[in-house]
Amino acid sequence: MDNGTFLRIAGLSAGYGATRVLERLDLDIRKGEFVALLGSSGCGKTTLLRAVAGFAKPSAGSIIVAGRDVTRLPPDRRGMAMVFQSYALWSHMTVGQNIGYGLKLKGLPRTEIAQRVGELEEMLGLTGLGSRKPAALSGGQRQRVALGRALAINPQILLLDEPLSNLDARIRLKVRHDISALQKRLGITAVHVTHDREEAMVMADRIVIMDAGRIAQQGTPEEVYNRPASPFVAAFMGAENVLELSGNVDASAVAIKAGANNHRCLLPLGGRTLESGMFEARFRAEAAELMTGDAPAGAPGQALELSGRVEAASYPGGIWRHSIRIGEAQILVDAPRPFEHGSAVRIRIPAEKLFLFNTRSAHERPHAHSLHDGRKGRVLEASET
To answer: Positions of the region Disordered (predicted)?
Structure first.
């Protein structure tokens, strides 16, 4: 085991019946690390968590915790605890009884159970609620009870299966910070499954983005957000605007050719591995600057500039979001003020906020649209990548 690795998942394959979900997946997690498994429904993140917990049997590979192979052990002998999406609280038990249930199964004395339950109630902001039953609690309080029950047995690893998805948005914002702070305070190793990008960014030390049972990319929140390794990751991390460009690459720069709706520009290569030819360019709505159509052009080596017309503007809060027609394509761009419907505009995307990838073959990218061929295409949504 490598120095610092606490949980090792090696060559793990798993599925349901004839359906293979995970295929020889490898993942190392350090002690005390908070790792978020991020991905859309069906990507394999929950299957991976259930395999680690012992609720799904892998067909190949191993799960090692602190040097001990737990692959074939039952869930209660793995030193782990899991918080489920539904919380799975006993409705006939009080808060205190729910939290202390695992300790009771271990046969601990009542006084010791009461002391541990009291400590957890205080730690989780549940003091005074110990005699209530789950039906008398708010969603946030029930979530804390489920977390307390998991922590009561002092697990080596805490597994979280989308535990915040049943909370309303306002409570969810607070509870995600509460869980993250508690995990840091206890120094516990945590693996958290979520489909919510912002939730993963806020809570995790490292994000593991999954796609079709494999790891598409892993890294710190800053790394996966600012340096996506593929079009799929870029789209999943919010860069849903997509264009097709052409250009040439040398040792230090990418020369983007002028098209019907884009200016020629010279962008720094910035460590990207690219070849001359066609590029898939992605960027976020908030990354672009929206200007009037007669605004002066910027320096050619700093940004990609596009020309288009405003089709719609809406106010989601804090900014105005514009739908811009560029040839036959549509993109979304944010601005601090609204631009009139039908007005000619210029869009400037700084080089550091533009993600470039060599395009795949035509059958792999049926929806990509080209600024050099205005007869086809539309914007890819994140769910289509």
So the answer is: 365-385
Give CA–CA dist 77/53, Å, rounded.
10
55 is in which domain, residue-wise? Answer: 5-226
| Statement to judge: residues 260 and 286 lie in one domain | yes
pLDDT of residue 192: 97
Residue 146 CA to residue 90 CA, distance in Å, equals 10
210 and 92 in one domain? yes
Tokens for 255, please give them.
């020369």
The CATH number of the domain holding residue 347 is 2.40.50.140
The answer to whether residues 263 and 191 belong to one domain is no
Q: Other CB atoms closer than 10 Å to residue 272's CB: what's the count?
A: 15
- Beta bridge mates, 65: 7, 68
How many residues does this entry show for the chain? Answer: 385
Question: Looking at the structure, do residues 252 and 177 belong to the same domain, yes or no?
Answer: no
Which residue in 320, 312, 310, 314 sits closest to 342, CA to CA? 310
Is there a domain that residue 309 lies in? yes
Within a domain: residue 68?
Answer: yes
Measured CA to CA, the distance from residue 292 to residue 278 in angstroms comes to 28
Strands of the chain, DSSP E: 5-16, 19-30, 34-38, 60-65, 68-69, 80-83, 157-161, 189-194, 206-211, 214-219, 241-249, 253-256, 265-268, 277-283, 289-292, 303-314, 320-326, 329-335, 344-350, 355-358
170 and 27 within one domain: yes
Q: What SS3 state is found at 115?
A: helix
Q: How many domains does the chain have?
A: 2
Final residue before a domain boundary, out of 195, 226, 257? 226
Kindly list the averaged pLDDT for each block of 10 residues, start to end, along the chain of length 385. 82 89 96 96 94 95 97 94 88 94 92 94 91 92 91 94 84 86 92 95 97 96 96 95 93 91 88 90 96 78 90 96 92 97 96 90 42 35 32
Q: Do residues 23 and 9 touch, judged by C-beta distance below 8 A?
A: no
Q: Cβ neighbours of residue 174 under 8 Å, at least 6 residues apart?
A: 140
